[in-house]
Amino acid sequence: MKVLANDGISKSGILALEKGGFEVITTKVAQEQVANFVNENNVDVVLVRSATKIRKDIIDACPGLKIIGRGGVGMDNIDVEYAKSKGIHVINTPASSSESVAELVFGHLFNGVRFLHDSNRNMPLEGDTNFDGLKKAYANGTELRGKTLGIVGIGRIGQATAKMALGLGMKVIAADSFIPKVDIKVEFFDGQSITTTIVSQSLESLFKEADFITLHVPAQDGYIIGEKELEIMKDGVGIVNCARGGVIDEVALVKALDSGKVSFAGLDVFESEPKPEMAILMHTKISLTPHIGAATGEAQDRIGTELAQQIITLLS
C-alpha cells in the first residue's frame, strides 16, 4: 500500500511505515493536483499537516482512499465527517505536539515581557550607535513569576502550557466549556511531582482577571477575542495565539496595541494566513512566528511514529 505524506513526515515515521510494509511518497503535490496524483499512483493514505486541504471534492474524486491523516491536533483543513460518511478513516495525533506548542507560547511570552522581538530587530541596526538609547527603551521589563496566566481551552496543549506556567510560579486560570476541571501534574527531573486542580471559569471572568492570555482552541465561526472582549481585559494585558488564525480580531488587536490597552501580542497563526496583514507583520509590539508550534524535531518524531502506528493498526 502507498502513503502520500504531502506535507512531509519524519524519518522515524517513514521507517516505521516501511517496516510495516508501506511505500511512503514524500513528493510535495500542489493542492489542485492532489486528487489526480492519488488516483494515478493508487495512493491508499494521504497524510497532511496544515498546508494541504482535503475537502469534499478530493474525497469524492478519490474512491480508493482509505485513510486521511493529520500530523497534529486541529483538523479544520479536512472535511472529517464527510470523509467518515464515505468509509474513510480520519486520524490525527493530538498528544504528540503539546509540549512543543506550549514552549513556543512561553517563547512569545518571554519575548513580550522583555521586548526581545523588538530588541532583536533594532540591536543590529542601532546597537553600536545608540546602545544607551536602546537600553533605556527596553528597560521596563516584567517578570512572569507571580502573574496570572489565563488559558482559553484547557485540553492537551492548554494543560502542557499550564504545567510550564506553574513551574515558573505563575497563577493559572482557565476557561473551557467542555472541561469543567482538570488535574495538572507537574513532574520534575528527579521523579518527584506535584498535582493541582484547575477549575474552569467563565471567559468573561478570565478576561478580567488575567495578566496574560493564551488561546488553545480549534477554528471558530467567530472571534473569541474582539473589541468587546479587549475592553474588559486588564490594561497592559499580553495575548498569545499559537492555536488557529481567526480566533482574534486582528484589526481590534492592532487598535488595542496602539492604545496601550494590550502591551504585546505573540502570534504564530494569522487571520489571512499564509499572507499575514502588513499591519501585523510590521507592528513593534507583536512577536511573530510563521505557524511553527509543532515544528520541533521531537514533536515531528512523535507525530510520524504515532501516525505510522495508527495506519498499520487500521490497514494490517
From TrEMBL:
Similarity comment text for this entry: Belongs to the D-isomer specific 2-hydroxyacid dehydrogenase family.
Species this protein is from: Flavobacterium shii
D-isomer specific 2-hydroxyacid dehydrogenase NAD-binding domain mapped to chain residues: 107-293
The protein's name in its UniProt record: D-2-hydroxyacid dehydrogenase
Sample GO molecular function, one term: NAD binding
Source superkingdom: Bacteria
Keywords: NAD, Oxidoreductase
D-isomer specific 2-hydroxyacid dehydrogenase catalytic domain boundaries: 8-315
One Pfam family here: 2-Hacid_dh_C
